[in-house]
Write a structure and sequence with these properties.
This protein is α+β, with helices and mostly antiparallel strands. It has three domains: 261 residues, Rhopdopsin 7-helix transmembrane proteins (Up-down Bundle); 132 residues, Sandwich (Immunoglobulin-like), CATH 2.60.40; 143 residues, Alpha-Beta Plaits (2-Layer Sandwich), CATH 3.30.70. It is 54% helix and 17% strand. The protein contains 16 helices and 16 strands. The strands form four sheets. It has a six-stranded antiparallel beta sheet with strand order 3-2-5-10-7-8. Strands 1-12-6-9 form a four-stranded antiparallel beta sheet. The N and C termini lie far apart (76 Å).
Length: 562
């Protein structure tokens, strides 16, 4: 197990290094981290918050804008006297708040009012508002009405950027993350679809689908959380809501994966009920939010608590199951999930810490590190490498099994199915089935062996086997070498067996005339039908067909003697 886990870790490390080198080159060539923008100083951004209880706090800088549902922020932003670019937009982020930007009583940007009126989620918004010419050199007014129930820190950087480049602002300085998670999103989608279409075996199919769709949802969450969607789509609604839908759904495929790899027992039952609760919470919250009764942000605390419980469960599973894991697959993948979940919880905790009033500004950088990116990269790469490695080993094992079965069920001389194969298939026949059994015996094999040697006799048997193979392909049923110079064919559609016997006997006669062996040979045929409802067993039908074949062979000998 330790050796297997070490291999997984080494593969993950190598893949990460190669990926980051290639992505660094791509980012450098594409120039994703180089775009002009101007960040406004916080001393030129002053606001006051009117809380729902009627109290007001004035002269607040952005890192003090902690708001809850119903709180209203009125801020003033001083613009430079000279427009820095030909067409310039002001850009900043807003979390679940109605937005108005204006100057001198005139609003030039507004968003979220219609959604708030319907009690619908506004979401994680990247505001891109082109500033009118008359506003430069003046104080513009910003109004935010908070929609999120839990305390939200509206601490955004306020930047001026060319309007044509504004949409790529979220990836400036984050080009590597954007490319990395774009690649992982595509890869996750491909893996999920491969699980649906190509992967065989119920367990492997579920594992592959779970990992693929979990990867896709985790990347969607990261894209929404960092507003990367704005770089590839102008649909504000999709961009704003991707984060919420993804985080509500991602626990389901992860739980499904864990449930699938678990052996039967108390651990599997625990995972099952955690998954049921998570499904009810996630899908229920999404369904109810569509009615406007609640918003998805309202269910986030409960969802985060459930994911924390899931993390604890995973840790317990890892500790209790690692010793029982013979090949290390489960332990390695669960380790990747656990590490990723630890970083995710750290990210959630850091977000909550930043909303605490009076939190030391010096420690803000520690809580603002991108724990999510590190955790997701470790989680996703471990999952992908683990499932690919497992599928590869399963495919090798299946190939070996198929080869063993081929050897067991194939006649080594002729390459057609052997007696064991035929017997196994005949066991599937029932008294309610129609079938016909035909026996074929090669006439002249003993003379060929005596006069020309067993090598010629073997070639004769192979010629007859080839004739059966080439003649049977249009018929429904199966065939094989029964033993020695005897062959058997079972027909499942009536009355095809009679047509086959006539065609086959003619083919044998033609082959005997032109055979390079120059050995006279023919076949004796015997057959017996089984009609639905007949009391005779398969063995009895086979024996009767065999006896009829021997009677035919005996009659041929008697005819030649005369």
């Amino acid at each position: 197990m330790r050796q297997y886990s070490k291999k997984i870790f080494v593969k993950s490390l190598i893949l990460m290094l190669v990926m980051f080198v290639l992505i660094y080159i791509a980012v450098s060539v594409l120039g994703m981290d180089r775009s002009p923008y101007l960040t406004l100083s916080e001393k030129h951004i002053i606001g006051e918050i009117t809380y729902t209880d009627g109290t007001t706090r004035k002269n607040l800088v952005p890192d003090q804008w902690r708001m809850s549902r119903g709180d209203v922020l009125r801020a003033r932003i001083k613009l430079p006297s000279v427009k820095p670019y030909n067409n310039t937009s002001i850009s900043f982020t807003v979390y679940n708040a109605e937005i108005d930007l204006g100057y001198d009583g005139e609003t030039f940007y507004s968003y979220g009012h219609d959604l708030a009126a319907k009690n619908r989620e506004i979401g994680n918004i990247l505001v891109v508002a082109e500033v009118p010419d008359y506003a430069w050199g003046n104080w513009i007014n910003l109004t935010l009405r908070e929609q999120e129930r839990s305390p939200s820190l509206q601490n955004s950087a306020y930047r001026l950027i060319p309007t044509v480049r504004a949409r790529v602002l979220p990836i400036i300085g984050h080009g590597m993350e954007f490319v990395v998670f774009s690649v992982l999103m595509v890869l996750g989608t491909a893996i999920g679809l491969a699980g649906v279409i190509f992967v065989t075996g119920k367990k492997n199919r579920i594992l592959t689908m779970s990992i693929g769709f979990a990867t896709f949802l985790l990347c969607c969450w990261y894209f929404g959380y960092n507003r990367f969607f704005y770089a590839i789509s102008t649909n504000i609604r999709i961009n704003a809501m991707a984060e919420y839908y993804a985080i509500h759904l991602v626990g389901l495929p992860i739980t499904g994966f864990v449930y699938t790899v678990m052996e039967e027992g108390i651990r599997k039952k625990v995972v099952f009920w955690v998954g049921v609760f998570l499904a009810v919470l996630s899908l229920g919250a999404i369904s109810v939010s569509l009615t406007g009764v609640i918003m998805l942000s309202d269910s986030l605390p409960g969802l985060q608590a459930t994911l924390a419980v899931l993390l604890v469960v995973l840790l317990w599973l890892l500790i209790s199951g690692a010793r029982k894991d013979k090949n290390g697959f489960e332990a390695s993948l669960l380790m990747g999930i656990t590490v990723g979940m630890i970083f995710a919880v750290t990210e959630i905790v850091s977000l909550r810490i930043r909303t605490i009033k009076g939190f030391p500004r010096a420690l803000m950088k520690v809580t603002s590190l991108d724990y999510a990116a590190v955790g997701l990269a470790i989680l996703i790469l471990t999952l992908i490498i683990g499932i690919v490695d497992k599928l590869y080993h399963d495919m090798r094992a299946q190939a070996e099994q198929d080869e063993l079965e081929k050897i067991a069920y194939t006649d080594q001389l002729t390459g057609i199915p052997n007696r064991i194969s035929c017997v196994e298939k005949m066991r599937m026949l029932t008294v309610n089935d129609y079938y016909a059994v035909a026996f074929f015996d090669v006439d002249g094999l003993k003379k060929a062996n005596d006069n020309y040697g067993h090598d010629v006799g073997d070639e004769l048997i192979k010629e007859v086997a080839d004739l059966i193979r080439n003649t049977f392909f249009t018929y429904k049923g199966f065939y094989g070498r029964w033993g020695g110079d005897e062959f058997l064919a079972v027909f499942l559609d009536e009355p095809s067996y009679q047509r086959f016997c006539y065609v086959f006997e003619d083919a044998v006669d033609e082959e005997a005339k032109k055979s390079k062996l120059q050995v006279p040979f023919s076949v004796s045929v015997g057959y017996k039908e089984h009609m639905p409802g007949m009391s005779e067993t398969v063995n009895e039908i086979v024996n009767e067909a065999d006896e009829q074949m021997y009677r035919s062979k005996k009659a041929k000998k008697a005819a030649r003697s005369d």
